[in-house]
UniProtKB/TrEMBL annotation:
<protein>
    <submittedName>
        <fullName>18526_t:CDS:1</fullName>
    </submittedName>
</protein>
<dbReference type="InterPro" id="IPR012337">
    <property type="entry name" value="RNaseH-like_sf"/>
</dbReference>
């Protein structure tokens, strides 16, 4: 299951699923992970992403 090509996906999953939903720092954590959904990324066309 583990391969070098999925290393980044695994790290992202650990970050996302490691969030404690009742912690006071959740808002800050989601802000710091804003790189996942940015205005610039929303404007990319499919041929640019793939």
């Amino acid at each position: 299951f583990a391969s070098p090509s999925t290393k980044e996906l695994g790290l992202l999953a650990v970050r996302l699923f490691g969030i404690c939903v009742n912690a006071a720092s959740v808002e800050r954590l989601w802000s710091s992970m804003g790189f996942l959904q940015t205005n610039r990324r929303c404007c990319l066309k499919a041929d640019v992403i793939y």
